[in-house]
Structures are given as structure tokens and as C-alpha cells.
Amino acid sequence: xxxxxxxxxxxxxxxxxxxxxxxxxxxxxxxxxxxxxxxxxxxxxxxxxxxxxxxxxxxxxxxxxxxxxxxxxxxxxxxxxxxxxxxxxxxxxxxxxxxxxxxxxxxxxxxxxxxxxxxxxxxxxxxxxxxxxxxxxxxxxxxxxxxxxxxxxxxxxxxxxxxxxxxxxxxxxxxxxxxxxxxxxxxxxxxxxxxxxxxx
Length: 200
Fold this sequence. Notes:
alpha+beta
């Protein structure tokens, strides 16, 4: 039995040798158009591929049930904006923590945490960029302004880092980075509103 989003999928006249053929057919018939798969259950157990095309190695003779749960791409985008809101708070906390560590002269710990923070910021900006390209905001002034401000700040922080001026770096994080991070909350809200408008 194959179930997609709570509805039974008709397999009359179709025979599948392995699980990958089921997935391929579901895609071919357009069930996943503008949708993202969030969960797959095989025999009521969660299934995630550990290696590429693992589904090909699962014979249908071993499978009693397949359940595929999906979410509309737009709904997923809204969910992502909610997660990004949490990421802003994580970045703010990280900035405070790094500044504090530099002020306590715990340079090794501060640098390690700072590098982790940079990675979080890069991923955040990448994801915001994808959503912006996908859902208007291309000419959004506050997005452009915030992105440029963050870029300039990174350049300044990099040169301060090279000079190993930890107190100045702590000041930059506390007095420039933290207020800049807060501004992203407004941009995220605008993206979420744009996504909802696109859905309507």
C-alpha cells in the first residue's frame, strides 16, 4: 500500500521491483510538483537514504507500506523564515559571547567561537539570498542596505582580526554587529509577507 499525504496512491496495473521505481513514478506523475518531501515511512518506520540510490536496493517484496508526506514549497519557505528568525537570535547571542570572551582575554576560545559564528552568518546570508531571489524582494532597499552593511563589517572585522586587536573586535561585535543583526528581523518579516502574498 502506498499513501501520499494521507491519500492512497493507486498502483493498479503497475508493478515495482524496488522502492526507487516507486519514487520515480510518483515524481513522473507530478505528485511532488511544487512540493517538498518532509517524511518517508517504510513499513511504518522512518526512512532516510544513507547512501545515494539506497532505495534501489530495497525490494518491494520486503515492503508492506510506503507513506510519503510532503509540504507545499511556499509553506516550507514560510517555515524556513521562522527558522531564520531563530538564527538571528543565535547570531546575536554568539556575537555577545565572542565579545565577552575577548574582553576576558580568553582569545583561543573567543576565536574558535568567532569562526563558528562566521559560518552561521554565511549560511544565514546564503539562505536569505535564495528566498529573496525566489520570492521577490529583489529591489528591497532594507535587504540591500543590510547586506552591504554586513559585507562592510566583515571587511573591517577581517582587518582587525589580522592585527589581532581583540578589544577593537569585541567593540565592533558589541556596538556594530549586534544592532546590524537585529535589523534582519524586519527583512525576514518582509520575505515572509512576500511569500504569503505569492501564495494568495
